[in-house]
User: Fold this.
Amino acid sequence: MLSTDRPMRAHARRNRDELLAAARRALAATDSDGAVSLEGIARDAGVGIGTLYRHFPTRQALFEAVYGSQLDDLTAGADELLAAHPPAIALREWIGAYADFARTKRGVHETLKAGMAAGRLNPSTTRARINAAVEPLLSAGAADATLRKDITADDVTTMLVGIFLATATSPDGEQTTRLLDLLMAALRP
Assistant:
């Protein structure tokens, strides 16, 4: 395993990034936990299986790293959307991205749950990061009067989690999209 005491060499960082990208693609293509081939991920990344195991000693470690990198992308995306769109549109776009993020986690739910139980993933930290991404969108919308002023980021996160749980077994995204649109209507003044 690579030491965490010193920065990764550029080649090692590139291999790790390629492995994460390949794992993200593989997980996006499947709905069943554990159905992805680690050998296939290594091959897709252009590295050997030994390199995969040096970076991610277990399937669990790989899936947790993918989750973390996707959460990083999701939370960073809120600022980018706000810079490119009016606040209400940016919020709806971000909510759609969060729905996609939640949908892709269904296939690895048990793996992520085990990571949470072991303390490697912290649901309250995840929620705080989601709230921190939503807050500037809500504040900007309240400032330009396109979103209600009495809604908190945690209110939105709670409603989103409820929608995602309620539609988890839905075969298509139609119900989720409809409920997200209803949520946006409720957030308008």
